[in-house]
Write a structure and sequence with these properties.
Aspartate Aminotransferase, domain 1, 15 strands, transaminase activity, DegT/StrS_aminotransferase, Aspartate Aminotransferase, domain 2, 370 residues, transferase, binds pyridoxal-5'-phosphate, PyrdxlP-dep_Trfase, 4-stranded antiparallel sheet, pyridoxal phosphate
Length: 370
């Protein structure tokens, strides 16, 4: 059996940058949830995306949780959230005892539909915060979304977990709303094995998040707590991996784009195939090359044929309003996210793939049309 081709797996730099930073942490015994790598990673990531401040945390989920808390979201508050996303976007709303209202996608972006968002504001004018996701590294239509949110004066949190390296009209995703979230989980475009970052121009907000993430210890000699705390800080080892990975982010984006263009050229003309939209205002990181199938060949056919050849692929996210846990919450839209789920498939987009690997994938898929 040929070697397995993965959807998206960790890819350390050839230069060994990550090892250097981690070695430094070992050599100085800074094996702790603080240290020069944590500070350095925050500084370097904030600079890369063009944000004033950043807090390094244990996961992207933790970053979403503390962003909601910073936005003042608490018990019984309503939060708008795209339905078509990974559950990690929605779960922290529940951690805060708040109420998600799921918003449909639009066809042009696969992301939050401005039209459905407008409707949601009419139904729930008291909404406390809006979570926007940039799915698969495609940016949402932020001008339209920000325009609506600004009119209602509501905090916007961008879940940019999948979109590090993606720009919307020249601005990095995650820096357009009030808070931006990045993830360094194993399958993301760069990884630290696990970790997250919250960015914002609100330096006070980020300072507060650092405070909450280290158990909310008041400035006192003894241990004193006036607020609930969390153990959400990133470790200095993990941050060292992140600093090294950040140096190769541009290379990873270039390779992801190469993969997307390869697939599009080879498969884009097949009957019923439509690749994920890359609008002209969108500079995606192409984290996962994805397509919809509207003809005879179904996503399940593609996934089964690839699996037989030891190649990983997967469906587009199952919408939150269709999930057993979340289906009791309201959904605003016309079923676009359901259609994307039914017709969508994510192709292997691992940056370690060779041209030979890419040929293997497209040959299996083309075979289904013969
Ligand atoms: C990966 C991911 C997260 C969660 O990040 P973790 O670091 O795994 O907690 C959140 N939202 C989206 C859209 C993701 O893909």
């Amino acid at each position: 059996m040929a070697d397995r081709i993965f959807l998206s797996s960790p890819h350390m730099s050839d230069e060994g940058y990550e090892r250097e930073y981690v070695k430094e942490a070992f050599d100085t015994n800074w094996i702790a949830p603080l240290g020069e790598n944590v500070n350095g990673f925050e500084r370097e990531l904030a600079e890369k995306v063009g944000s004033k401040a950043a807090a390094a945390l244990s996961s992207g989920t933790a970053a979403i949780h503390l962003a909601l808390k910073a936005a003042g979201v608490g018990e019984g508050d309503i939060v708008f959230c795209p339905s078509l996303t990974f559950s990690a976007t929605a779960n922290p709303i529940i951690y805060q005892n708040a109420i998600p209202v799921f918003i449909d996608s639009d066809y042009e972006t696969w992301n939050m539909s401005p039209k459905a968002l407008e409707e949601a504001f009419e139904k729930y004018p008291e909404v406390k915060a809006v979570l926007v996701v940039h799915l698969y590294g495609l940016s949402a239509d932020m001008d339209k979304i920000m325009d609506i949110c600004n009119r209602h004066n509501v905090t916007v949190i961008e879940d940019a977990a999948e979109s590090l390296g993606t720009y919307y009209k020249g601005k990095h995703t995650g820096t357009i709303g009030d808070y931006g979230v990045f993830s360094f989980n194993g399958n993301k475009i760069i990884t630290t094995s696990g970790g997250g970052m919250l960015v914002s121009d609100n330096e006070e907000g980020i300072e507060k998040v650092r405070f909450w993430s280290t158990q909310s210890r008041d400035k006192a000699r003894h241990y004193q707590h006036s607020e609930i705390g969390f153990n959400y800080r990133m470790s200095n080892i993990v941050a060292g991996i992140g600093r090294g990975q950040l140096k190769v982010l541009d290379d990873r984006v270039a390779k992801k784009r190469y993969i997307y263009n390869f697939y599009k050229k080879e498969l884009g003309e097949l009957d019923g195939v439509k690749f994920m939209p890359s609008n002209e205002w969108n500079e995606p990181n192409y984290w996962l090359s994805s397509m919809t199938l509207n003809g005879k060949v179904r996503p399940i056919d593609v996934m089964e044929a690839l699996e037989k050849e030891n190649i990983e692929s997967r469906p587009v996210w199952k919408p939150m309003h269709m999930q057993p846990y979340f289906e009791k919450y309201d959904f605003i839209g016309e079923g676009m996210s359901e259609k994307l789920f039914e017709n969508g498939v994510c192709l292997p987009s691992d940056t370690k793939m060779t041209d030979e690997d890419l040929e293997r994938v497209v040959n299996v898929i083309k075979g289904l049309w013969r």
